[in-house]
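Morning!

This is the sequence you dropped in the shared folder:
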Amino acid sequence: MKEILRIKGIAEVHELFGFTKPKHPLVTVLPIDERMTSFDYGDVKYACNLFQISLKTGIAGSFSYGRNAYDFQEGTLTFLKPNQTAKVEKSEVVEVGKGWTLIFHPDLIRKSELGQAIEEYSFFNYEVHEALHLSDDEKRSLTDLVKKIEEEYQKNIDKHSQEIIIANIEMILKYSNRYYDRQFYTRSNWHKDLISKFEHVVKNYYQSGKAEEMGVLSVQYCAEALAMSSNYLGDLIKMETGRSAKDHIRDYVIEKAKTKLLGANQSISEIAYSLGFEYPQSFNRLFKARTGMSPSKYRRLN
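The structure's back. Tokens below.
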């Protein structure tokens, strides 16, 4: 088992890479330069109790967390949330000084509205290969916001500093949401193909009898079958169809249930178990919520 190195605070990050002491205890902006790219990361996984947003540009190498590795490309933005584990492979600087990493401690935003809302930014749960690919204008917009954060904590910190820093972090996240929407839109043809694959996974799961063995199909199972995160899959399907991945699965289950109710001699309990429900009552509730009637009433009326 690989060793996991845990980093708890901003000061530890600065010390690890040989940067001077941080100007602010809860937030920092670091350039992605030789100190980071030539650092001997070793065969170690890193876990930070910190949020991290990184613009990778002009760097060759790879970075991984979860099951996937991601090769750095020009102008990509990656997001890490506290306690995610990551492994960094050796990398080589192509262009120095154009990339940056914004790192902030959860305590910075804990009492703010952003502290309550940050879970809504689902890209913190994306896999690393689902990074955001930025245009030059988008890179400039985000870099300008990062510079404002850096300028704010470099000055004499006053009672307004934290509010201003948080406001700029929130703007970065809002712009990232917009840019991800653009990325979903411009890759629409690829996404339509992916949705077809998602529908095939759903169909195969129930036709193969896996539901009886493994239970009701989850979005997580579909995402793993498609080698992506459940959050990215969910956001993609919502963007393309206006409905959630879970709704697509439930609709398929209901249609399958209707066919079984009308075309088989199974009891309602047997149908529920065959569709992966642990308890028939759960199946009954879902069926009634989606159709407006109980399975038994549907069977009688048809």
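Headline: The chain has a mean pLDDT of 85.

More detail when I'm at my desk.
O.
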